[in-house]
Amino acid sequence: MNPLDAQTLSPTRRRLVMLCAVLGIVLAGLDGAIANIALPTIARTMHCSDMLSVWIVNGYQVAVAVSLLPAAAFSEILGLKRVYAFGLALFTLASLACALSGSIGVLIVARVVQGVGGACMAALSGALVRAIYPRSMLHSSYAIIALAVAISAAVGPTLAALVLAVASWPWLFLINVPIGLLAVPLFLRVAPHTPAFDSNTAPRDRILFDWRGTALNAGAFGAGVLGVDALGQGNTLLGIVEMGVGGASTLAFYRQQRGRKAPMLPLDLLAIPLFSLSILTSICAYAAQILAYVALPFLFQSVMHYSTVMTGLLVTPWPLFVAFAAPLAGKLAARYPAALLSSVGLAILAFGLLMLSIMPAHPEIPDIVWRMGICGIGFGFYQTPNNLTVMTSGPSTRSGAASGMLAVARTTGWSLGSALVALIFGLAGGSHGATACLELGVVFALCGACLSVTRRVVRQDSKA
């Protein structure tokens, strides 16, 4: 879709497409989080070991990780609409299969399929927004995407606890089905067709899918995610081996992609300093976020002895304040440099994490809430301008690859943060481990702020 098409799309149709995009993000994000809470219940119901039940989560995470870049590549061959609709439909059908599964093996396979569908939506949401909105409206639309990501990540565990309090675990997946059944036909009806490459003029590697690159991508990201999980389970040797395989696959993937004109791993975009710095900023920000998201529930439940539901409520101010800050940051991004806004946001996030790390042993609830609110404001101010920079620093013909890389940065940051949480809790358990995670989150947020402000210099140099 070119800018003229985005300008002429009716407001009602644009809002309906955006609704489908947000639903996809929220569904995929929630299902990535809720299964952790349900694992003990599922293992008990299906009479399987805890080790086997972990693959309900692992299968989904690995499928998402290995499918992000291939989904983005397919979107540039087949068009955004087809691939996003396929992902939404696949996710819906897989959710039904999860709910109806009668054995742990069927459930794991269904979760893998569900992860593939979720990856299609996560990888293409940013490109879909760029396709349907004119540039003057991108700031506010990316604020909505930022809010959807934040809410789905933070609310998932609480929602799972509430559902399990009144219903059996299959309902965690069944609630996706009616939403998907409404969203798929609506999306197919209202979403505009986005052009694929012209086979008569496009380079050969733009119109033929890169299967060899896909296999290397699976080795790089799949082994990396499994290695992180192994470290988290205390399997240090296995984790090191798997991460070593991931590293070797990453190197082979990079070498294989260098000669391609439109690589699945977007080396052409990463060669743009503004783009690569924005991706690194994103990795640091999401690593800081997951360090807090994993450490804080442990702190609230195991140290401060709050219930699961209360823990979810205490985490909620973070996404609520993202809801306030993200639209404001979107409006400010139209007037002020995105690099500056993101740096300020990450500095605020670092301050909020620092305040959480020095909380008294038994704080009052308001003392927790205002600290979480500061983190939400900082993350909201960072996310919208940064995502906007990622999606607009390269050519529009590569928006699918840019959107996929943004999702990869999020996954990489979360995986890195998760590995560090496992390492820290292995070395220092209890409240000391949670505090150390928050302190490391401060470091990542400040590193992200420094990387972000560097983009200001890069942009000035490129203008010169």
From TrEMBL:
UniProt key word Metal-binding: no
Cellular localization per UniProt: Cell membrane
PROSITE patterns referenced in this protein's UniProt entry, alphabetically: MFS
One GO molecular-function entry: transmembrane transporter activity
Pfam family, one: MFS_1
Residues spanning the membrane: 16-39, 51-71, 83-110, 116-133, 142-165, 171-188, 274-300, 306-326, 338-362, 368-384, 405-427, 433-454
GO (cellular component) term, any one: plasma membrane
Residue ranges constituting the Major facilitator superfamily (MFS) profile domain according to the UniProt record: 17-463
Keywords: Cell membrane, Membrane, Transmembrane, Transmembrane helix, Transport
Annotated InterPro entries: MFS, MFS_dom, MFS_trans_sf
Record's bilayer topology term: Multi-pass membrane protein
PANTHER family: BLR6921 PROTEIN (PTHR42718:SF46), MAJOR FACILITATOR SUPERFAMILY MULTIDRUG TRANSPORTER MFSC (PTHR42718)
Protein name: MFS transporter
Organism the protein comes from: Acetobacter garciniae
